[in-house]
Design brief:
Blueprint: H1 3-32, H2 39-69, H3 76-93, H4 97-108, H5 128-137, H6 150-170, H7 175-188, H8 199-218
Helix pairs in contact: 1-2, 2-3, 3-6, 4-8, 5-6, 6-7, 7-8
Length: about 220
């Protein structure tokens, strides 16, 4: 199933849940607090309801992510940082949470201290040159050592993934194969996909898609 379709389905499910909570919340206020019928108090109440829903949805999503992360050896403190960073970057770029988690599992198996043979760093395995380029682009005054900080690693990786998506979208790739190219370029570099995807690309993409499907079903 294309990532965008699954993402829309998950988002739709959360919206239905939010609407239900809002309906219950407003009904309880109307029934239990007649004094709040005034316009001023009514608006204040709706704002409170909106904040309540946002906090509840954020909490629910965090719990879903933590449920996945608890299956690894990751420390609770790092898991909390990862869950919040993933939610933030998912909302910012419209990239599914399940895809972030799938890449983490494939790249580092959720090891925040991972370093590859080519010196790719951290939980999303960011190459040092990519890190340097995006730290500069994003005006982050940090060294390479900070690539092992989960929130920063995810932030840089998310920006990189978003740029790759924009790049291949502009080249005319449709949703059915767009993410195959995005993930392949993330894995082996944009130069490696010139002339089409190779066996190593397809093997990587297949595994990430499998993990993304597992993550989505687990949440």
């Amino acid at each position: 199933m294309p990532f965008v379709i699954k993402w829309e389905q998950d988002t739709s499910k959360r919206k239905r849940y939010a609407i239900l909570l809002l309906t219950i919340f407003v009904a309880l206020v109307i029934i239990g607090a007649p004094a709040l019928i005034s316009t001023k108090h009514g608006l204040q109440n709706l704002l409170s309801a909106s904040n309540f829903l946002k906090q509840n949805e954020n909490y629910q999503q965090k719990e879903e992510i933590l449920k996945v992360l608890r299956q690894s050896d990751i420390q609770l403190g790092d898991a909390m940082k990862i869950s919040q960073a993933v939610i933030d970057q998912s909302k910012k770029y419209g990239i599914p949470v399940s895809l972030f988690l799938a890449i983490m599992k494939k790249e580092s198996n959720f090891n925040v201290d991972a370093r590859s043979a080519v010196n790719a760093m951290g939980i999303m395995q960011v190459h040092p040159l990519t890190w340097d380029a995006y730290v500069k682009k994003m005006n982050l005054n940090v060294s390479r050592d900070k690539a092992f900080e989960p929130a920063l690693n995810i932030m840089v990786s998310a920006a990189f993934l978003n740029d790759l998506r924009d790049q291949y979208t502009k080249k005319g790739y449709k949703e059915t194969i767009l993410w195959d190219y995005v993930l392949s370029a993330y894995y082996a570099g944009a130069e490696s996909v010139r002339g089409g995807l190779k066996k190593n690309h397809r093997t990587y993409v297949k595994k990430v898609r499998e993990y993304a499907y597992e993550m989505s079903n687990a949440m």
